[in-house]
Amino acid sequence: MTASSMEELVSLCKRRGFIFQSNDIYGGIKGLYDYGPMGVELKNNLKQAWWKSMIYERDDIEGLDASILSAPVVLQQSGHEDTFTDPLVDCKNCKSRWRADQLSDKKCPECKSDNLTEPRPFNLMFKTAIGPVDDGSSFAYLRPETCQQIFTNFKNIIDSTSRVVPFGIAQIGKAFRNEITPRNFIFRVREFEQMELEFFVKPGSDEEWHKYWVEKRIKWWESQGVNKKNLHTVDVDKSELSHYSKATVDIMYDFPHGKEELEGIANRTDFDLGSHTKNQKDFDIAANVKKNEHSTTKLGVQNLEEKTSFIPYVIEPSAGVDRGVLAILNEAFTNEEIANGNSRIVLKLKPHLSPIKAAVIPLKKNNDQIVEKAKKIKTQLQNLGLGRVMLENSGNIGKNYRRHDEIGTPICVTVDFETLEDDSVTIRDRDSMNQERVLIKDLNQFYQKYFH
Ligand code: ATP
Q: Which CATH number does the domain housing residue 143 bear?
């Protein structure tokens, strides 16, 4: 089941501490959101799952965590200074601004006037001053995608790890885009996170690898609990390809506001490494790479058989963390009928994504013996290292169950008077709501089963 509207998700996110409007107490800033106590856990768990699937479960990908502030020359060479733009129009009537390609009827969405300016390119990159003098002479860009520093570190990584193609470099981190019309909650924001892999391959094998990564990435989203029927692929039309791309497949998801891009998988050819390399004439590179007079480093690799060097092609699966969180919340959101004509909201998250892995609830909050026992159980489960275990102390068991259903906690462990006599606890399963008695000595095993 999914949410019936975006409002339903926004309301749950605020009520239960997943996501808040940023700068809320001052009226908020459009296009910025903060992740609360539950949101930060969910987001970290999603990023961890991606990292695990890219780095730990494979043997051909290295990790990187590079700087956000980027030298202008990097984004000149990457083509972003010239082409990273959206078409901007002004409404002459109410003075609002819009992205021309998002206006379906060529009218201002605010006042419905058709008195709009001609579209003009608006560069989406944020700039900031570097150093103590802000006279415009020394500035950096906040990176609009995480991958450029993967390309600029390509030689460092090859030299320090002895990698040969095919191999990849993966990174998770913030990216910034001055979107003209941020909207749809965390779907289109100005500060967001990306999970990007740059997978370097021999030219000629690129199309096969492109297909491979499209399939892999769809399977991964499914393994995070996204229903196959809500995922779609679209071959981006040639006329809409980014300047660096030979072919792009977008993975689209049925978000509450409509079908839109969750992840893009591009064949970036040798455009980026070619544009950042020294002595470009030594290589047989694509015609559209930017001429480079600044780079200090050759970014080619050896072809051992032919004793030549070449610039690898790169396949890039680029996923948005925030769009991923939104898709996963939507997929998990369930409003279901339970006994006696009642209903409940429950987040049926995959346990590895749940913000809280188990809640330990002492039945009586004023009974020292029960509370002590509950604390011990919390520590016991916490030490298994599967994520946050929460000790509840509000005492109202019904309220606790409701709250943990809504944040997607797989199990609640209740400690009561019987526990003091026979060392057993009641476990309530989130999805079935079944309750069963388990001995504390069997608890670790019982709990760990949820994560396999
Ligand atoms: P869109 O067409 O929706 O603007 P894009 O094609 O510009 O997206 P890419 O440059 O391919 O996006 O970026 C890769 C991924 O980064 C996207 O698939 C998306 O998940 C995420 N992303 C891009 N822009 C934003 C944004 N403004 N807010 C949240 N996530 C974003």
A: 3.30.930.10
Residue 186 lies in a domain: yes
Residues spanned by the domain of 363: 356-450
pLDDT-derived band at 209 (thresholds 50, 70, 90) equals very high
**What are the phi and psi torsion angles at 56 (to 5°)?**
-75, -35
Both 370 and 310 in one domain: the answer is no
Assessment of whether the complete model's pTM goes beyond 0.90 = yes
Q: Which one of 310, 329, 348 terminates a domain? A: 329
Which among 194, 220, 237 is the best mutation to test ligand 1's pocket, defined by most ligand atoms within 8 Å of the CB?
Answer: 194
Residue 150 confidence class, pLDDT cut points 50, 70, 90: very high
Look up residue 435 and give its two tokens. Answer: 């309750």
Q: 193: how many CB neighbours lie within 10 A of its CB?
A: 22
- Whether 340 maps to a domain, the answer reads no
d(CA 444, CA 452): 13
Report CA(188)–ligand 1 centroid distance (Å).
8
Atom 3 of ligand 1: nearest residue by CA position:
261
pLDDT tens readout for residues 342-401: 999 999 999 999 999 999 999 988 899 999 999 999 999 999 999 999 999 876 899 999
Q: Compute the mean pLDDT over every residue in the chain, rounded to the nearest whole number.
A: 95
We report the CATH number of the domain holding residue 436 as: 3.40.50.800
344's tokens: 């409940």
Q: Report the separation in Å between the CA atom of 320 and the middle of ligand 1, taken as the mean of its atom positions.
A: 6
pLDDT at 305: 81
Whether residues 302 and 439 fall in one domain: no
Q: Residue 204: is it exposed, middle or buried by C-beta count within 10 angstroms (0-12/13-18/19+)?
A: exposed
